[in-house]
Amino acid sequence: MLSPADRLLVHRDTGIPGLGLVLDAAAMLELLRDACEGGDVQAVTPRYLRYKPGTNALVAYDVRVDGLTVSVHAKAHAAGDGPSVESRMHKADGRAVCHPVLGFSRMLLPGVRVGVSAFPNDEKVRDLVSVIDDGRRRDLLQRAVASRPMLAEAGLRPLSYKPERRFVGALMVEGRPEAVVRVQSRGTTLRPSLPPSTRLLRLQRVLGRREWRGVSITDWIEGDTFESLVGRGEAGRVAAEVGRALATLHALPGEGVPERRVSDDRQAIEAAASLVAVVLPELGLAARDLVTRVGVLLKAPVRPVLVHGDLHQGQLVLGASGVGLIDLDEVACGAAMSDLASLVASVLADTVTDRVATAEAFAIADAVVAGYAREAGGTLTGLDTWVAAHLLRRVPQPFRARQANWPTTTERLLSLARGALDTPRWRERRRAAALRMPSDPAMPALALAAQPRHVEQALAGLPGQGWRHVRVCEVRLLRHKPGRRGLIEYAVAGVPPRPDHIVTVIAKVRARGADERTASLMRQLWDGVFAPDSAHGASVPQPFGVVPGLSCWLQARVPGVPATEWAWGSDAEPVMRRAAAALRLLHTSDIVVHRSHDVEAELSALHPRLARLAAARPALTTRVARLAAACATGLGRLPSPRPALVHRDFHPDHLLWNGTRLHLIDFDLAAHGDAALDVGNLVAHLVELGLRRRGDEASLRPAIDAFVHAYLSDAPEVTAAAVEAWTVVALVRLAALSVDLPGRGHTTEALIDLCERRLDAAPPLTLAVRPSVVETP
To answer: What is the pTM assigned to this prediction?
Structure first.
């Protein structure tokens, strides 16, 4: 019987007809009972799942039959998946081995495009039979490890098996394991030769291999795995030794091993988040938010060292000869902190299943990190970010391992990953080195803002914050517009009331001096309608204060994914309705700002941009002039609006959603003006986004309709005609900007065409508003 979460997944993924069958252990039990001739099939337990949405799903089962446990796997294919299942299985029939207990080798269910294979039949790991069969294994070992003749007569004890990936078994001599044999799919690159073992670390040695068959034989390292010691509560005494051994690995030469780039790790966490969004859509936004945050932090260059590449507790063996490192198939030259974080994440992940108490897991992790730092020297730059990344990579594991409560465990893992990023535990608390800033004579404060000691003194003077003993641990320049402004991010330790945590602070530096007006507005919004715990679910970043000496004001960094990403999702419409309600709250606020923005100001800002567009694309000069005149005419037709507090730069990048709360950011241009300006501006940006990314101006129509209808339903004084007029003006502005912004030049003429079509639509400058939909012409 399918669990509720599995049932929903099957309902969503209609492209794989047999998905429901392979996920349903009870249905597979009945199938195998019917197929097994004479055997008593007592239980079927799923243990491994590899799922490619819309393409295929492979599930491995432990099947209890006649008192024995045998391995079976089933693979469900997409309805239009290339060669038929029948033809693929027919090709494999020549190598098929009938299982002595189950009584079949392979089964085919063409109606649902499912193939069922009994061990050792494997479509990808074709030489598995050569290892399982005693005679063929003897021949293989005699050739591969001629220096160890006793292994030729060894028995085989299976250790692990992932269908279509690899099989690992122990070669047994007189009842004791003497070596390990691995069989992988043909074409898999086997691990390179590694340096010899050291005093602190023993590396599993390659004894022999058959490269073309994907077979390798390595020595056996006797001892207890670190995983078993953690489970027995005995890891604390050896955790520091494990950290030291890992540092030893990272100090070894890495000649001849492949490179593992940070971009490879980023792709891995993106893939994990994408899978989470498919299997549990309600967690998709939170996962993508973490990917975005982690991805930004992992852009710093790293010095590559020799790394394990797939390190977890089960890969470390502790015995009489010290710490041994096994399963070195993924060894590479990469980021040392990624390797350490992978091990730490594997320990912390045990807390979500209550295998290990949280306090104990963190104590073990602390000891591993301390041992590593003692042996390696230097700093552990970025460790917390890497831990978050590896926890995020593990988020789909409960689903893949077919845990009974996988939705709950998945959510707990995601929360653990977020905590690693939000409350760094191992980030370096020492004062950061000064950041070298680009020269900017118009902004001398930019250089001062890069000096951690100078910044700490400024932070200590912030009224009402109590930041007298803070320390700036990191400085990062996020954006810089020469002669105008800069955006700097600080990691600040020692902030009350949790001085053990690190807070991320954003500094907005301006050439004309600190923007005290925007800082004051943000304080009023934070203290009022957009408080952090507001019932309507929308907030603004917490402002910390103004630092005149650095020509900046400070605010907290807020988590969330911009609407440029979540507007495409299935849950975008309710979030867009929340955005509309939040914008309406802003527009009806009684906060006074000392700046206004009217039609004349808008056209004055638009005309220079259109002149640059005409200069860049002379062939468009006449059409650009007509659009300029049409914008002036369209806005001039509108009645004088009731002044509202408008954002003035309300676009998708300034709407951050973290799965539970919406954050509105970047109020630097806020003024009193026409409320329809903000509505039209967001509509125009969403239209342009769809055109730019997917070549379809209507691709975000559901999100746009939800937003506009929700806003106009609550704003009787704002007309659909006004929204359309401001939408066209914003689209014209985006067409002008497209020649200046990288990656947008291909949209210029399409945007101009779109503007002309909207202006020519009948009736002109209107939105047809009905009770449940908003239609744009």
So the answer is: 0.70
